[in-house]
Design a protein that fits this description.
The chain has about 240 residues and is α/β, with parallel strands linked by helices. The protein has nine helices and seven strands, in the order αααββαββαβααααββ. It starts with a helix and ends with a strand. The chain binds S-adenosylmethionine.
């Protein structure tokens, strides 16, 4: 099962993450730790892992090169999944590999949208720079994440804030949208097709999928390689 935008994005992912790009991505992991974005994301991940106070099973959705493996604590088992085989190859030797219990990591290649995790469940699931960015975060994905979590489990993920990406021209076009002919509407719909989400869209999706406790925060990334606004969501399955 998949949908059109997921399929389109997967072909982009295959093209973008070629051996050269993934090697460069892995190389940048070494510099990334000097950015404010790293400090921010690493402290969130550490805090969430430590909040369990016991060994935990973790799922990294779209792990890429395994940039954050070294900050995880209390790891009993880490499932690291990604669609790109090239990224997964890099993740076999992640940043600060010597500090990571590599024997506790299981790698899976696949599309999260329809990947079958069997009867596995997780205490902590995180996904950075993937959902609502390179692939969709919709009701199906949110429900899947909810089901994959154990009771008391926590979810942490980022999506790109669509509102921050809208130009002045687009805001005007959106105001005029209800009055435009159907043909123009179709063109605009196609042009505006994206995985990015507004705060309200994200809030609507998360609130409807069983997460009673969650918070969404806006984070402005200072990473020189990715300047922009992310919406960050932390949700707990009671
Ligand atoms: C910007 S990278 C982020 C990697 C890593 N999370 C990080 O923060 O460094 C996006 C990753 O998402 C993966 N990806 C994109 N769509 C995916 C999908 N549908 N299922 C699994 N992984 C996906 C890509 O292959 C890529 O490794």
């Amino acid at each position: 099962m998949s949908n059109q935008i997921v399929t389109e994005k997967l072909s982009v992912t295959l093209k973008v993450y070629d051996p050269t790009t993934t090697a460069n991505y892995r190389q940048y992991d070494e510099d990334f730790i000097h950015t404010k974005a790293y400090l921010h994301l690493a402290s969130k991940l550490k805090f969430l892992c430590q909040s369990f106070e016991r060994p935990i099973t973790i799922l990294d959705v779209g792990c890429g090169t395994g940039r954050y493996f070294h900050v995880l604590t209390h790891v009993d088992r880490l499932i690291a999944m990604d669609y790109s085989e090239n990224m997964l190859l890099q993740a076999q030797h992640p940043f600060r590999e010597a500090e990571i219990p590599m024997d506790k990591i299981v790698f899976h290649q696949g599309n999260f949208y329809d990947f079958d995790f069997g009867n596995q469940s997780f205490d902590f699931i995180y996904s950075i720079g993937v959902l609502g960015e390179h692939t969709v975060f919709d009701e199906h994905v949110c429900n899947k994440l909810f089901k994959l979590l154990r009771p008391g489990g926590k979810l942490y993920f980022t999506v790109v804030d669509l509102q921050s990406r809208k130009s002045f021209k687009r805001k005007i076009m959106e105001a005029l949208y209800p009055f435009t002919p159907i043909g123009i509407k179709r063109i605009l719909d196609k042009r505006w097709e994206t995985c990015y989400l507004t705060w309200t869209q994200l809030d609507n999706i998360v609130s409807k999928q069983g997460f009673e406790v969650y918070q969404i925060e806006r984070y402005i990334s200072e990473d020189p390689k990715w300047k922009g606004v992310h919406l960050e969501c932390i949700a707990t399955k009671l």
